[in-house]
């Protein structure tokens, strides 16, 4: 995760320093895979995921599927590129909104032993009964996946990663508010298995199990994948400015 973040940060600094046009922003990053989630508005909990791969310099759609996001919709989050959307809600801890913006992808996780998940082309960690994600904004471990024993008592609240439900049977850590972590800007954002297509999340992006498995078979850390998550109107408005593909194209 640190190596990927460094690559993205280096590319972004170079871009800002050279003053290149904003239309080259996405293309200036090393990403060769792009996951795009769009919703009808800022308050809806249902959306659609489009997965693209760069081939011969162009984004090619590989597949798409339905998703749900936070039960309160979207709020602008902290990603790898700044997104300017006037009057849009802003993502905060506990607001049940999924982050809008552009984010790199972190660790894959699931209930399976690592030996049974060697097909995943990302770093993988088993969601055991000792794996947690710290959501205490006052903790030095805020917004971090770690083994319970590591943190000892350095947090007052956390999220269990091994659940009775199948929500975290398969998933990905989304790098929202990572790097220079801002306390209170939101934590523990995942892509995971949904409960149903009408059940929103606490801030994650979720989908049917066959869909998240398809994502995990496809996504490859060496391609520096990104997640772009916006309302459909804002995506279409910012598409050319950010160098993003046309939806479904």
Explained architecture:
With 249 residues, the protein is of the alpha/beta class. Helices cover 18% and strands 31% of the residues. Strands 1, 2, 3, 4, 5, 6, 10, 11, 12 and 13 form a ten-stranded mixed sheet that branches. Strands 8-7-9 form a three-stranded antiparallel sheet. Strand 1 (33-39) and strand 2 (46-55) form a beta hairpin. It is globular and about 45 Å long. The model is unreliable at 1-24 (pLDDT under 50). This is L,D-peptidoglycan transpeptidase YkuD (ErfK/YbiS/YcfS/YnhG family). Keywords: Signal.
Short account of what is shown:
InterPro entries: LD_TPept_cat_dom (IPR005490). This protein is α/β, with parallel strands linked by helices.
User: What class would the helix/strand composition place it in?
Assistant: alpha/beta
> Roughly what fraction of the amino acids lie in strands?
25-35%
Helix content range: 10-25%
Query: Helical element count?
Result: 5
List how many beta strands DSSP finds: 13
From the spread of the alpha carbons, the general shape counts as globular
Unreliable stretches covering 5 or more consecutive residues: 1-24
Distance between the termini: 30 Å
The averaged pLDDT comes out at 90
Alpha-carbon Rg, integer: 17 Å
Largest sheet, if any? 10 strands, mixed
Whole-number tally of structural domains: 1
The SSE order reads: HHEEEEEEEEHEEEEHEH
GO molecular function: transferase activity
Keywords: Signal
Organism: Mucilaginibacter frigoritolerans
Protein name: L,D-peptidoglycan transpeptidase YkuD (ErfK/YbiS/YcfS/YnhG family)
């Amino acid at each position: 995760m640190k190596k990927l973040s460094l690559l993205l940060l280096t590319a972004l600094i170079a871009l800002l320093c050279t003053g290149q046009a904003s239309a080259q922003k996405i293309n200036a990053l090393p990403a060769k895979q792009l996951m795009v989630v769009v919703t009808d508005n800022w308050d809806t909990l249902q959306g659609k995921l489009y997965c693209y791969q760069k081939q011969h310099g162009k984004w090619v759609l590989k597949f798409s599927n339905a998703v749900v996001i936070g039960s309160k919709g979207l709020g602008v989050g902290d990603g790898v590129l700044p997104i300017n959307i006037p009057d849009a809600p802003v993502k905060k801890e506990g607001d049940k909104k999924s982050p809008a913006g552009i984010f790199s992808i972190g660790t894959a996780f699931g209930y399976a032993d690592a030996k049974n998940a060697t097909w995943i082309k990302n770093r993988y960690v088993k969601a055991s009964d000792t794996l947690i994600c710290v959501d205490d904004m006052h903790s030095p471990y805020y917004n971090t996946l770690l083994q319970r024993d590591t943190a000892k008592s350095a947090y007052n609240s956390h999220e269990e990663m091994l659940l009775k439900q199948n929500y975290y049977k398969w998933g990905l850590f989304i790098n929202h508010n990572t790097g220079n972590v801002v306390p209170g800007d939101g934590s523990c954002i995942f892509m995971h298995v949904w409960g149903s297509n009408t059940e929103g999340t606490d801030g994650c992006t979720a989908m049917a199990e066959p869909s998240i498995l398809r994502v995990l078979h496809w996504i490859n850390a060496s391609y520096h994948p990104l997640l772009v998550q916006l309302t459909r109107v804002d995506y279409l408005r910012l598409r050319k400015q950010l160098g993003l593909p046309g939806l479904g194209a």
